Amino acid sequence: MILFMIDFIKMKFNLITHITTSCNYNCSYCDVIKDKKNFSKKALEELLVFIKNNKNYIERFKFFGWEPLLAWENIKYIIDNSKIYICNNYEIVTNTSLLKDEIWEYFKKYFKIIFFSIDSENKFDYEKISNFIKKYNLENKVYFNLVISPWNEKQALDQFYRLYNLWFRWFNILPIYLTKSWNKQNLQELSKIMKEILDLLLEGNNLKLYWFQENLWEELKLANNTIFIDIDWKIYYSDIVSTFSGEKIKKDLFVSNINNFELKKLEKNDFKKQKEIIRKLEEDIYNRVSGQKELQKIMDYFSVYLNNKKW
Q: Rg for the chain (alpha carbons), in Å?
């Protein structure tokens, strides 16, 4: 009985893997390091060994970008050789430009959550994507990352309503941090957009905002147990190390090389220490980049505004 309880309360982790550092888009707001690297064959095999050895401690496995589908064959290889351990708990973030039928089939079979990122700088085929989502019955798996920058607030709201009118209800609202500045007028416009979307949710329209609603307890719980496997096979406490802003704290967020590492060695206190390091970096950036503190205050305000309402 005691052994059962110990096994029951063990920590599980959400793994993020950069399958490639290449991208077929060149977004003006992007802060990531694009050095066009991919996992080597040896690295893929090491990753599969890591997954097998830590299978009891992995909750989900996310393929991240810059555009992960540029490395589709590697993604497919990982899934085909690890699905026995991960089951159907894969995730991905993609700009949708490289989708094809084979990928949609994998989405249906193996993925728990799929994030489609859209913004005003790149083409997005609403009708085509909508038809495929319905064809493969993925309505309850797809979130739309709605990117909002200081120069596209109104376009972002238009994108939201266009998807909403196609009967999609799951969104991740992503205002741009750490890049170009937000001025007073931009922030006021952002506030109007956030209130309009949140009021729509509170009216009972079945909206679901990822990372924003406290009642989405599972996602919030996993956010505290996330580790990042970089293209160099190394494990870090956060994927912020792959950005120009976070590069300087890479050593501080280093966990281990992937070889023979056991996830069960990680403890909650380890994550608390690393969160403090990231918080200090964010404070430094907020002090240097105009509008960042105000942006954070707006998002914090609306999070409280939403979660203080009665459901």
A: 20
Contact 136, 107 (CB under 8 A): yes
Positions of E strands within the chain: 13-18, 58-64, 90-94, 111-118, 142-148, 170-175, 208-209, 226-229, 234-236, 254-257
Any bridge partners for residue 62, and if so which? 16, 91
* DSSP class of 182: P
For residue 39, give the DSSP letter: -
pLDDT in tens, the chain (311 residues): 444 434 445 678 899 998 999 999 988 888 888 888 888 899 999 999 999 999 999 999 999 878 999 999 999 999 999 999 998 899 999 999 999 999 999 999 999 999 999 988 888 999 999 999 999 999 999 999 999 988 888 899 999 999 999 999 999 999 988 766 788 999 999 999 999 999 998 887 788 888 776 555 445 444 568 899 998 889 999 888 888 888 889 999 999 998 889 998 887 778 888 888 888 888 888 788 888 888 888 988 888 888 776 44
Q: How many domains does the chain have?
A: 1
Is 117 a domain residue?
A: yes
In terms of residue numbers, what domain contains 184? 12-307
CATH for 16: 3.20.20.70
Residue 177 lies in a domain: yes
- Alpha-carbon distances of 123 from 64, 118, 237, rounded to whole Å: 20, 8, 33
Question: How far, in Å, CA of 238 to CA of 226, rounded?
Answer: 7
Task: Examine residue 266 and state whether it is found in any structural domain, yes or no.
Answer: yes
151/156 Cα distance (integer angstroms): 10
Which residues touch 114 (CB under 8 Å, ≥6 apart)?
Answer: 91, 92, 94, 107, 138, 141, 142, 143
Asked whether residue 130 is domain-assigned, the answer is yes
Query: What is the C-alpha to C-alpha distance for residues 90 and 123, in angstroms, rounded to an integer?
Result: 26
